Amino acid sequence: MATISICVPDHLLRQARSRVSKRGHATVEDYLLSFIHALALEGEPIDAATEAALLEGLDSPLVEMTDADWDAKLVRYDQRRRTARSRGNVR
What we know:
Layout lengths: L9 H11 L7 H14 L6 H12 L7 H20 L5
Helix pairs in contact: 1-2
C-alpha cells in the first residue's frame, strides 16, 4: 500500500476533523480515503438491479431523517466497516 502526503489550508483541515466522526470515520485519513474511493468508482457502469433500486428510491416519498435515524445509520456503517476490516477488505 502506498502513502501520500498532502498540504491543505488550516480551515479545510478543521472542517475535515469536525466531519470525521459525523460521517462515521475513525480518522481524517479514513475520511479522505472515502473520497478517493468515490472518485475511483466514477464512471463505473451501474448494473440494472442497482439502477432499478436507485430509481425506486427517487420515486419514493420524502421522509425527514431524525437524529435517531442518523445514529442508527452510523452504527450500521461502523459494523459493516469493522466486518470489512476484519476480512482485510478495508484499511
